[in-house]
Structures are given as C-alpha cells and as structure tokens.
Amino acid sequence: MATDHDHADHDDHDHPHPHPTRPDDDGALSYYQAMEVAVRELLIDKGILSADDVRRQVEDMDNRTPARGAKVVARAWVDPQFKARLLAEGNPAVEEVGLDRGPYKLVVVENTPDVHNVIVCTLCSCYPRWLLGLPPDWYKSRSYRSRMVREPRVVLREFGLDLPDNVAVRVHDSTADMRYLVLPMRPAGTEHLSEEQLAALVGRDAMVGVAVPAKS
Amino acid sequence: MSEAAALPALFKSGDPVKVRFAHPPGHVRTPYYIRGHTGVIERLCGNYPNPEELAYARSGRPTQPLYRVRFLQREIWPDYSGSHTDTVDVEIYQHWLQPA
Fold first, then answer.
1. In sequence order, which residues have a C-beta less than 8 Å from that of residue A111 and are 6 or more positions away?
2. Minimal Cα–Cα distance from A140 to chain B, Å?
3. pLDDT tens digit string along A10-34?
4. What is the per-residue pLDDT for B45?
5. E strands within chain A?
6. Cα B71 to Cα A117: distance, rounded to the nearest angstrom
7. From the CA of B31, how many Å to the nearest CA of chain A?
8. Which one of B89, B94, B96 would you mutate to disrupt binding with A, by most A Cβ within 10 Å of its Cβ?
9. CATH superfamily of A67-208
C-alpha cells in the first residue's frame, strides 16, 4: 500500500493524504467463533477452567518457536549416539534435550548427500507445533499442499533450493498420527562451532525441508 | 472382539501393498491422489483409533494399524518430471491397504 510520506504524527499539517489501512475486524462472529466464546464462558462459569488458564495456554502456544527444533538438530549434529536414538524414536529423544515429548509420535527424517526430505500435509496443516511453533501461512496454503506432492522439485526451486537429480527427493505427507521433523545436514566448515552456535544456524524452513542451513 | 482390541498388523516393512481405490462418503484420511496406487511398507507406526470413525464421535476401536507407505513419484504421476528415485511417503491405515 502506498503512502505519500512517512511521519510519526499529524499535528503539523492538514489532511488529506492516503495512509495504509487494514479493515477493522468488527464483522459478526462466525458460527464457530460464537461457539468458542460460548463454550469458553461456560467452562469458566462452571469453574472447570479460569480465564487465566486460557490466557496462559495461548501465551504458551505463542512462545513455542523453531528454536526448540533447532536445539534438537544441533544436539544430533554433535552427538552421534543421540542422533541414533532420535532417528529410532523421536519423542523420548527430544525429552533428553529438555523439551516436551509432545502430543504426537515424532518421526525424524535425516537428510544425507543422497536424500533430501520435505514435509507437507496435503489434507490440512499437520505440523510439529511443540517443536516449531505455529505453521507458516504458506504451509497451510492449497498451493503448497497440492504442489509439494505433485512437483516437489519445482516448488523447492521456488524456495531457492535447486537439488541435483542424483539427490532423491523424499516427500512425507503427514496425513495421520505422525508428526515430522527434518534433520538437515550439518553445513561444512562448522567443526569449530559450539552446540549453541550450531543451533543458531538452523531455521524453521530447514526443519520443514524447503531450505538447507548455511554456514551463517 | 472387545471394544478395546487392537487389530493385528497384516503387513511388515518391505511388503508391497495397493491402496484401495474407493470413494466412501464422509471424513476420509487417505488422500485421493494415492488411491489405487502401489507402494511398499516403509514402517508400521503403531495402532491408532480409526479417525474415520472418531470423526463421528464413535470410539474408533478396534484400533487400526497405521503404516508409512512409500510410493515412487513416477508410479503416481506418469508425467513426473523429477528424478526416478523421488518418492512420497504417506501414512495409511490398514483398512485402506491390500496385498499387491
């Protein structure tokens, strides 16, 4: 959206000039929004939950970030035994680094020089939220969900990742009770970095598989 | 069979399987694009209540074995343009699978 100029206040000049606007969110509640409000109020009235419980859950949800997944990846890079346990059974392994084991079974898939893994949920937006936070909008888009299984190499190129033909692209469609985390390859030239410094190289997109971590 | 029973797993890793080509109404968890295709069991994930029953507030029991099945992209999309080694793994419940 265009603006005539940038400024902090309006005290020293007359309008009009265009400002970026966003429509006010004051339409009628949808059926399910009204249902959510009604159920929440009933639960609070009946003393089953408090308003603070609800607020705390929302805050917890918003505090989950990809830094959690990055911690798991960095540990796997520095500790081969941990990596073996993580690949064999994800949930107890993430507990070892001090994270919640999570509400779903975790399957960790490892990138190698021959295999690149990428995650999609064609049916909805299944995502390991307890390790990566809320999924990005593109992950939930119909375009990503349909095209990632149909032409993954084209989609990956649009993300800036051009894989040679000798690397197999392994798409994982998260349709049921598993949740997936990609274990990217450790970038070359990072032998001197600490586990914490390594974790800082691991972004969300690398753990979904639409990018690979770079040396920095 | 009791309500709590778990259905036994009929397949093991490496078994070739074919996804039923079916179009049941309602909540279905096998994506359309994979129905009728043949793949290989990558692993057994465990037993889970059938989500196609849970969706209607039924118990989902006996629980269904859930598998990850690996398909070659070239098998799913005859005009697939990527490498012939590219694959897609899909989670599929046992009642959608038959021996291939």
1. A117, A182, A183, A184, A185, A209, A212
2. 16
3. 556 666 777 778 888 888 999 999 9
4. 96
5. 105-110, 115-120, 168-173, 178-183
6. 14
7. 7
8. B89
9. Nitrile hydratase alpha /Thiocyanate hydrolase gamma (3.90.330.10)
Domain segments of chain A: what residues?
Answer: 31-63, 67-208
Per-residue exposure over A7-39, b if at least 16 CB sit within 10 Å of its own CB, e if not = eeeeeeeeeeeeeeeeeeeeeeeeeeeeeeeee
Give residue limits of the domains in chain B.
16-99
pLDDT digits (tens, 9 = 90+) for B64-73: 999 999 999 9
ipTM for the whole predicted complex goes beyond 0.90: yes
Topology, domain B16-99: SH3 type barrels. (2.30.30)
Comparing CB atoms, the residue among B31, B51, B82 nearest residue A169 is B82
Which residues numbered 25-84 in B keep a CB inside 8 Å of some CB on A?
29-31, 33-34, 45-46, 48, 51, 66, 68, 73, 77, 80-83
What is the model's pTM? 0.88
In the numeric block, the tokens 């894989």 are attached to A163
